[in-house]
Write a structure and sequence with these properties.
Layout (H helix, E strand, L loop, with lengths): L7 H15 L6 H10 L7 H9 L2 H7 L17 H8 L3 E3 L24 E9 L2 E10 L1 H4 L4 H29 L1
Antiparallel strand pairs: 1-2, 2-3
Helix pairs in contact: 2-3, 3-7
Length: about 180
């Protein structure tokens, strides 16, 4: 088949072989091309870029591969914003971190990093009804203005892709043990 494009059944077989061997979905070239077209422009919104990435499960899975943590953040049993988001498995969108009502809920480890921070989005990762981690972003006033419903929805979709990847990884690990 050298020099020829594989037939659709051969392409499907190739993808299935890669899945069996590596356990990962391959990134689709169409998605990589779309991202390449979006990135040179300074007018491209984060939402457009996130939507392009989210169209490809394999690429999303690769981007969300767990990275080594540089700082341990105490979450278990914590009665702060992060711990409560985890224990209650609730999404938190906080548009004003300086609000007096939030003061008692800000953890000690977070306070030194707050300079200039105006908003935070905390999205717990819940797998099999157990909180296993969270997505967290924060930013200044300019970033807070970008927290539109479509952007928040894109973040939640990205979180869902991470949960699916974690769930799939867990299932693969259990299958290997059998």
């Amino acid at each position: 088949m050298s020099g020829q494009a594989p037939t659709s059944s051969a392409a499907v077989e190739l993808i299935l072989t890669r899945l069996r061997e590596s356990g990962e979905f391959p990134a689709m070239s169409r998605t990589v091309g779309a991202i390449s077209e979006l990135t040179p422009s300074t007018d491209t919104s984060t939402s457009a870029l996130a939507n392009a990435v989210l169209q490809d499960y394999g690429l999303t899975q690769k981007l969300l591969r767990p990275l080594p943590s540089r700082a341990a953040v105490p979450l278990r049993g914590a009665q702060d914003l992060f711990g409560l988001a985890m224990t209650q498995a609730r999404d938190l969108v906080l548009k004003d971190l300086t609000a007096p009502s939030l003061e008692p809920l800000l953890p000690d480890w977070y306070r030194p990093t707050m300079a200039g921070r105006r908003y935070a989005v905390i999205l717990p990762l819940v797998v099999n009804q157990k909180s296993v981690g969270l997505f967290y972003i924060d930013g200044d006033d300019a970033g807070a203005r970008l927290l539109s419903p479509p952007v928040l929805n894109s973040l939640k979709v990205l979180r869902t892709q991470a949960v699916l990847a974690i769930h799939q990884s867990t299932l693969r690990s259990l299958a290997r043990k059998r």
